[in-house]
Amino acid sequence: MKRPISTGSEARRRVDRLRALRGSPGPLREHCLAILADEGSPDVIRLALEAIGETIEMGDRPILLSLYDYFDAVGPKADPVGTVRVEVLKLLWHLRSHQDLNLALRASRTVEPGFNSNGELIRAAGIALLGAIDPATAALAAAKILGSGDANTFNGEPSLTAIRLLASLNERAALLMFALNPPAEPGELRAESIRSLANIPIEYIADLIASASASQDEAVLVGLADLVIQLPESPEATEAAKSLLRDAPHPEIYEFLVTSITASRRADLIGVLLETLPQEMSQKRLTAAMRALELAPRTSEVEAAIAELALRVAKQQPPRRP
Fold first, then answer.
1. Triad 62, 66, 71: Cα angle to 5°
2. What pLDDT is attached to residue 213?
3. Of 67, 79, 181, 312, which has the fewest CB atoms closer than 10 Å, so is most exposed?
4. What's the half-sphere exposure (Cβ side, CA atoms, 13 Å) at 118?
5. What are the phi and psi torsion angles at 157 (to 5°)?
6. pTM above 0.85?
7. Secondary structure letter of residue 117 according to DSSP
């Protein structure tokens, strides 16, 4: 049965009521369910799905399934990048019903043409739902996604979700293999896999750290910085931190790293930062280090470093014109 699409004025009234009821959970929920029951406008439906959020109940499941089946049948003509279906799958994730196993599998395999897309967001939401229902099957499906190179060039999906799912399931072997043999792009995929490997013994990721350190991809370097800051103290972790501080190709990467080091409040990493400062010549980096250290736990070494950095930065400032 075809869902009628509200006219412009009707849609505005429904959306305005959604906004007006934000502070009234009960009436808001009732209004959302009324929209989901008969509305045909994808935009209005999406807003209602987002508004109902985690208040979804098992009794609402038939409406969600009806919505999904309707837009899945119509396809990209009414739901161009799968926005409605993705929101439905997100709500079903909260319910975690094993009755939705087949739907999760179906969504994780959905391929349909679209503008700069092929259903990747639906597959991503499907694999996430599968992870909440059947983790063992989801791990296999996620590994298959990574192995097949299923990743949109712009957003990395569904591979990005697959990586996060495997990390949450502690499936580190698959992530290590992917991090060592990543696709050329997008770099966010390798970055996401790298930052999830902190609990792997250092000897298994030493080569990965070395190769990633030589990358010119900012996303990869940020992911590597996240990994290094999570690593337990060791000579290898110390050397990795030194290498990143010394060779960071952009001031922004250096600033991110020194800020993350001080935010970690780890004495060993702050010590590494202090050790590298005498060799640092860039005014931008010295300034970034000084600002970061101002947020670090105050020790005599940190205080001395801040004072020294302030002098060095001042000396590098161009003289003021009279």
1. 150
2. 87
3. 181
4. 10
5. -85, 150
6. yes
7. B
3-state secondary structure 120-174: HHHHHHHHHHHHHHCHHHHHHHHHHHHHHCCECCCCCCEHHHHHHHHHHCCCHHH
Fill in the amino acid letter for 180. L
CB 246 within 8 A of CB 277: no
**Contacts of 277-283 spanning 24+ positions with Cβ under 8 A:** 277/305, 277/308, 277/309, 279/246, 282/251, 282/254, 283/313, 283/316
pLDDT given at position 54:
87
All residues at 6 or more sequence positions from 67 whose CB lies less than 8 Å from its CB, including other chains: 36, 45, 84, 88
What confidence score (pLDDT) does residue 316 get? 74
Regions of the chain with pLDDT less than 70: 317-322
Return the SS3 of 191.
helix
Report the candidate in 201, 266, 263 with the shortest Cα–Cα distance to residue 236: 201
